[in-house]
Write a structure and sequence with these properties.
The protein is α/β, with parallel strands linked by helices. It folds into four domains: 201 residues, Rossmann fold (3-Layer(aba) Sandwich); 239 residues, no CATH class; 186 residues, Rossmann fold; 254 residues, no CATH class. 54% of the residues lie in helices and 9% in strands. It is built from 42 helices and 17 strands. Strands 6-7-8-3-9-10 form a six-stranded mixed sheet, with helices on both faces. A four-stranded antiparallel sheet has the order 2-1-4-5. A three-stranded parallel sheet has the order 13-14-15. A hairpin with a 2-residue loop joins strand 9 and strand 10. Helix 14 runs parallel beside helix 17, helix 17 crosses helix 18 and helix 33 runs parallel beside helix 36. The longest helix has 30 residues. The two termini are 65 Å apart. Keywords: ATP-binding, Membrane, Nucleotide-binding, Transmembrane, Transmembrane helix, Transport.
Length: 1059
Amino acid sequence: MSSGREFDLSFRNISYNVMQKHDHTHTAIIKNLSGSFRSGRLVGIMGPSGAGKSTLLNVLSGFKKANVTGELMVDGQLLSERRSRKLVSYTQQEVNLWRSLTVEESLKYAAEFKLGKSSTEQKMAKVRELLEVLGLESCADTLTDVISGGQAKRLSIGLELLSDPKVMLLDEPTTGLDSVSAYQVLAHVRELAARGRVIACVIHQPNSQQLQLIDDLFVLARGRRIYSGPTNGMVPRFASFGLHCPVSYNPADYALDIASLDQEDDRLKRLMMDEEKDIFDYKCSILNRIKSVDDSYQRYSLTTFQQLGVLLRRTALCVAKDSYQLKARFLINIVVAFLISIAFYNTGNNADRLLSNTAVLIISLYAIFFSSIVSAVLVYPRESACFVQESKNNWYSLKAYYWAKIIIEIPTLLISSLVYIVIVYYFTAQPLELFRFVMFAGMCLLFGWISQMIGLLLGSLMSVQTSVFCSIMVVVPTSLCSGFFIPLRDASIFLRPLMYVSFVRYAFEGSLSAIYGYDRPDPECPEVFCYFGKLRKFLSFISLPELSYEKTDVTGEVMVDRQLLSERRSRKLVSYTQQEVNLWRSLTVEESLKFAAEFKLGKSSPEQKRAKVRELLEVLGLETCADTLTGDISGGQAKRLSIGLELLSDPKVMLLDEPTTGLDSVSAYQVLGHVREFAARGRVIACVIHQPNSQQLQLIDDLFVLARGRRIYSGPTNGMISRFACFGLHCPVSYNPADYALDIASQEEDDRLKRLIMDEEKDIFDNQYSTLDHIKSSYESYERYSLTTFQQLRRTALCVAKDSFQLKARVLINILTAFGISIAYYNIGNNADRLISNTAFMILSQYVIFFSSVASAVLVYPRESACFVQESKNNWYSLKAYYWAKIIIELPTLFISSLVYIVIVYYFTSQPLELFRFVMFAGMCLLFGWISQMLGLFFGSLMSVQTSAFCTIMVLIPSYLCSGFYVPLRDASIFLRPLMYVSFVRYAFEGSLSAIYGYDRPDPECPVMFCYFGKLRKYLGFISMPELSYEYDVLALFIWIVFLMVAVYLSLRRRIKSE
């Protein structure tokens, strides 16, 4: 146990600030805290929620380091950040234990990690001592999963006690415990403190009995100290400032009341000022003393290899005790194996079923993939809390944990996968040759190992749900490139490079090789003729060119005025306002309506449009906020505006999804009042409404009530209660009918509800209409859109002008970057001794333009996708109009920001001051920026901002590798050379070189005695570009631009359909 000599943990001027994301200001969580915790005394840290109690412990323990200032000392000596955890242990509020181990086993393994140099007898003696001291002897053989909360708290403290820390910090050790258990925990903690340790614990609201166990208190209020000293001195201290504790009042509760006072309270102000008078700025210069104190310091008690051994033994024991997941994995693999065996029974040697047998191979890979990845993604999330706590408290290294996870998962993979492989291989009648089985099994196991590693990677990065989703996102493109769905010979020039890196393809080809390769005899033909009687013919043919496209699962009929409604034209009559309000936040309310009128009332005169806008502002009660930005109006006003935007086209049918969600009762009533008024003017209006109050229900004329997708009532609102009563469902007196309807719809297998549903559905009919010709005659004058691209451009330009932060930021960043590069490459443009540096300047300029262009472009679609999808689906404008507006409106931004950069760097790096060269260089940079922008638009329209940024980097890396700067064309391998002929970066780089060095430019000056590249021709030959063709490079870049423009259009079209 700890030494009897007294010492203390002291801290001076500790502050911790966090930056607010919305305005980038810094908020102080704890402010200039100073204090001292003495050994032998139990210190209780108190304060209301948000006072900074847990943050203080995180700082003192070293768990929180960023944005922390101040000094931390043990026994008067500054504590180095690297070694603080040897002296200080930190037990967090949440108890993290290995649920498959008993109490004694948990302590034994902790002793293995923490007491590495001790003998086995010494470790066991320490474990038995802690079981006795902590009162855990009675539950020593009980699993930690089933012990009480108090026992779990004491065990978590005991795990850290094994290393005999001088300082113990406990975060709310009594939280979640009853008063008896909380008292027991505090009593044990106080006993540990009495043995010569510094122990400080955050305690939220101790009762009077618990408070007697605490020797000293440290009370916080909004990150500032209001008391530090003996427990029995707190009440007199507060009283001296006019804060008198009432008789028979728990002093701890009174301390919390004072800490919760408004900081403008004069008494609390004076108390804080007096407490903080000892704040000082003393700078300690005794860091050298730490080294002498900790000369014997070892971060871990065991070597990495020894840690690995203990981790493997502990994990194996946990798996053996909690083998549910392992058994489930085996069982699922066996069941799936038998199902596949039944479906593909005896196909292995049948020439007439070779395609089916090939399907067995790819399906087997899928089965192993999902079996391996699903179990692997659970490994880290299942034990992450324990791992983080143990690692931060120096039980073992990350390296040891990593290898333990890799090694322990391999036997599970081998056994579960082999069970599946043996069953499928035998029952599908694959060739019974040992070498083929070994090859096939080996390929499947390697594939399973890859799948398992992907699962471990995803599981360590994100939640289980996201990991499973991402694993599917990994397998889909890799499977597409497997060679099963699209053979290599049929793959497009864009898909083929992906096929060379798809691990699914190599596993599939390896499986094919094991089953069909190595001079296997032709399979038997049970029919008169088998098209694939020869294996060679099958292996050269194998493909599935026809892909199944997703079909809708919606059936039934939709009619307006008893006429079937065509899918293409339905949106002219029907408008749909979604639950989420999507508005252009840079426009005012009136501007939003004006632009909507431009789109929807194209043939009307300007006066008619303005009159319609004014009418809607008046009808919807939006006149007072007409000039307010939509980003600043209230929720109710936003809901009304979203309805008004659709009203401009005067639809016959309006569908509203929860128009009152997120509104207070007054705003909800106003919105419903306006909606009812519109219905009274001759429209069909149906709205989903979640739980209307009695006042709102009076505004609803008819109700359509659903229960699990089936109708239980349709009719007038005032007839619903009597309808339900007919089936024995009586609404109580003074009960909101809407709430009662929800209660009925939420009932389980109720006989009365069943009879009600049966009666409601007796009018279901199967009439087949043949009146599609009626629709065509009714809509001969139908026009889907009213306007062209021009109005779209005007609105987008206005939004950009009103919200120009991104443009200004882009220009500013380009200017700063330009000056930075100009300083680095100042005056190198005509220096023969620095030609390589000048060439590096060109490739670096491309990097700048690429990231500047792509970073802003990937934000374009995500920023306005919700508005675009809603407006496009409600026929405001065509995809084509939106597409060209995006393309055109981004070009001025690209030209301005890029030209600013180009002019600065071109001048200060002393490139040739010839107009035609500047125009050529600028033109090449702008074309390259345009391609970068189109790439950003493409990725931004396909995926999230984060994924888009990642994908652009994944495109950039191989493109720059093939630019000709890093690997000249003459040195490129046979595999890299084809990529260099399609790399847009290479053509932009060559074009820049041509602009600067081509067209008979004189040799540059040589400022030293000898320049190796004194002749430009020699230098261009050295970088493998002796012949430069600017026109050829421009043509290649234009081809890329056209290709990407088509790709962006198709991606937007796909996004519209998917949404």
